[in-house]
């Protein structure tokens, strides 16, 4: 089921139109210069609630997307950045789901052991 969700997310990103990216960029573009600066990413909605490791990955994605190294992202660079950050979040979600599954499995095993011990007494 989770793999299907990952495929669906990848397809959604692939199917995004230029107008979708324009709207996303416009939403983040605090300076209204038609580009995205790193400080605008840091001030975007929800960024402050991200874990430090994810923020660092976002910063690396920003640097990678900034192909001309002018410290701002044009529309084409922003598309690459957005796709990379979606993958970063997808990987984080998958990690969280796997951790939760492991905890639930451990809890179920402990419950079974406790029930077995109780039956033996």
Automatic annotation (TrEMBL):
Residues 53-88 form the EF-hand domain. Gene3D superfamilies: EF-hand (1.10.238.10). Coiled coil: none annotated. It comes from the Eukaryota. InterPro entries: EF-hand-dom_pair, EF_hand_dom. This is EF-hand domain-containing protein. The lineage of its organism: Eukaryota, Sar, Alveolata, Dinophyceae, Suessiales.
